[in-house]
């Protein structure tokens, strides 16, 4: 059986973002080698991939979105009972986050609200557990949200471990040589359900205001289950500049974050992206994205890959948790 060529997976677009099939990778042999080559190519160009063959329950995202929409439709005073700041567990209301600050750009607040959950595997050190493993908060008004969100994040964590193994193999670090086997045994993660309300709710965007401002993510891999829209996801690459991200309803959108860029020695740039503000031609557009941000163990020591695999030499080791926290602090308003 001849494996499909992943480089022809997006014939409808000139996007540098390629689609790879995880089932091909799992076959091993030539099929896996083709997938690994496409991963390396796509991540070098844009820091993004589309992934099919992921095995995620196709009914789960739709059910989770429906439960999340029930929560987001509650009155603000009800949602306020579950309010937290950026990095917390619960409802992050409008006006608290501006992702453009991560790039040093002062932008108006992002036009979104978020429900957030995170890893629940504390290590027994209070100052570590309070920050990285804080208890989740679940709204009594929408009881199915807990069950569905927990099921989805469980599947996302397993997928993220596979993605790290795939990416290590793409750089010649397969099997026992995969460094993430020893760096992600109790990885930290957070998961956001982002609600992007319509223009009829938020009003006209301010100059320079986005649903999410231009930024890169901070960890290793991000898994995104998205709804396409006029005010949707755009990705930056040197080849295409800012361009709409390709969309396939059967695929998940994957991007790498700053920590994985650092580990790759700059070979793979973190995927720079933004979510456009609501557009005048679609004033009623109302989108919900499901996002899983994977990291490493909070105390993992990350040693950048040296040339010729890496592009930059002489970078010092970093501690994963310290690296990510510094970036989270940068995007928090107030």
Automatic annotation (TrEMBL):
<dbReference type="InterPro" id="IPR050231">
    <property type="entry name" value="Iron_ascorbate_oxido_reductase"/>
</dbReference>
<dbReference type="GO" id="GO:0017000">
    <property type="term" value="P:antibiotic biosynthetic process"/>
</dbReference>
<keyword id="KW-0479">Metal-binding</keyword>
<keyword id="KW-0045">Antibiotic biosynthesis</keyword>
<dbReference type="InterPro" id="IPR044861">
    <property type="entry name" value="IPNS-like_FE2OG_OXY"/>
</dbReference>
<feature type="domain" description="Fe2OG dioxygenase">
    <location>
        <begin position="186"/>
        <end position="296"/>
    </location>
</feature>
<dbReference type="Pfam" id="PF03171">
    <property type="entry name" value="2OG-FeII_Oxy"/>
</dbReference>
<comment type="similarity">
    <text>Belongs to the iron/ascorbate-dependent oxidoreductase family.</text>
</comment>
<protein>
    <submittedName>
        <fullName>Putative oxidoreductase, 2OG-Fe(II) oxygenase family</fullName>
    </submittedName>
</protein>
<dbReference type="InterPro" id="IPR026992">
    <property type="entry name" value="DIOX_N"/>
</dbReference>
<keyword id="KW-0408">Iron</keyword>
<dbReference type="Pfam" id="PF14226">
    <property type="entry name" value="DIOX_N"/>
</dbReference>
<comment type="pathway">
    <text>Antibiotic biosynthesis.</text>
</comment>
<keyword id="KW-0560">Oxidoreductase</keyword>
<dbReference type="InterPro" id="IPR027443">
    <property type="entry name" value="IPNS-like_sf"/>
</dbReference>
<dbReference type="InterPro" id="IPR005123">
    <property type="entry name" value="Oxoglu/Fe-dep_dioxygenase_dom"/>
</dbReference>
<dbReference type="GO" id="GO:0016491">
    <property type="term" value="F:oxidoreductase activity"/>
</dbReference>
<dbReference type="GO" id="GO:0046872">
    <property type="term" value="F:metal ion binding"/>
</dbReference>
